[in-house]
Amino acid sequence: MNNEEPSSENNNLIENLEQNGLSRRGFLHGMGGLGAMLGMGGLAGSAGAAPKDADGKVIPGFEKGQNDPNAAKGWQSVSDRKVKVGIAGYGLCQFGAAFFYQNHPNVEVVAATDLDPGRCAALAQAVGAKKTYPSCEEMIKDKNIEAIYIATDAPSHARLAIMALEHGKHVCSAVPAVFGFQAEDEAEKLFNAVKKSGMKYMMNETSAFHADLYAKRMQFQAGALGKIIYSEGEYWHDFGPNGLPGYNPKNGKIELDGWRKALPPMWYPTHAAAYYVSITGGRFTEVSALGTPGLYPEYNGGDNQHKNPFGTEIALFKTSEGGISRIGGSWDMKDAHGEQGRVHGQKPHNNAIKGDRPPLPPGVNSGDHGGSHGHLTNNFIESILLDKTPIVHVGDALNMTLGGVIAHKSALKGGEWMKIPQYEL
Predict the structure, then answer these.
(1) Looking at domain 8-60+78-206, which CATH architecture does it have?
(2) Cα–Cα distance between 88 and 223 in angstroms, integer?
(3) Nearest Cα to Cα of residue 29 among 252, 246, 249
(4) What is the DSSP letter of 99?
(5) What is the reported pTM?
(6) Residues of the chain below pLDDT 70
(7) In what helix (H) or strand (E) does residue 118 lie, and over which residues does it extend?
């Protein structure tokens, strides 16, 4: 999940203030230096701790950091140039600092931003940015910045990515690429912005660099698997009765009434959908999906901000190869946890084909989410330096995301087969 949640060290103080009618942002603005101090001490000081949900469970993907001491073995520099990067977004998952931009030898982090001044200061300290901005919109206008890493709340990803592309910036976005009721309209605009700008766009889908997925990708590209007959991907995360906090644009607070409340699982499908799209580069073409009523009160039979009754959704996709893919997402199943998938082709796995992930620059660790963080950053930066296509380019990103959006529509209609819009570079 991405990253607009508060650090647990600051929760009690600020929640008490919010209960008395003072917003978190208003408090931090009003207190000025104290707000920065809270951010620096509470957020930066806890860097490296596994982020947890409201029930104290580690968020899937952060269970174990993957800091491989041999990750740099065999690495060779592709350039002496440093890409000037601005980073937007910091929170419970501390995504703005968790992908090793600040450690990459071909990156200079020149600016940082977060809507919360305390988190903004903490992010700047964590990534070594000398300049800060009060919003991503303001940071995008900085002509000195070449690339933007967008690690904000999901509903803002497409809007900020489009704005950055239109200002001539390369863009790396946290998942999903587009979001919610407006996703199909956003997809068209984002795709056109990428094509018109000629800049690089990548979605940071962490499953793309899971060791098992990457090995299957190498198998498929070598022709070892043949066509994929069947694949499946799952993202299971029981949010629990207390839910998971998120940014709420209506009041500027980060709270349980934020964007994640009663979130349709298929609006956040990419960790699972990557187990087909990121292996094959193929496409979901049609989908039929079903959902089960959400277990927790926030779903309220669909009377909520997303008009969503479902806590679990399972989708069956037709693929561009003529195969079948089952993608599941759930926020309320018990004893179900994590991001995983399987893929089965016409031919068996060939152990003679090397499937290791590429080496990383010294100082850039694999990181969390199955050791994917550093690989995603390195892939994005090398795509700029070498003028090559990122591993999760806009076509893949939109297919994974829109597949889930259409699946949710299908679930609302009781499993009706629906076509998925196609975007190819």
Answers:
(1) 3-Layer(aba) Sandwich (3.40)
(2) 39
(3) 252
(4) T
(5) 0.87
(6) 1-49, 54, 63-67, 92
(7) helix 117-127
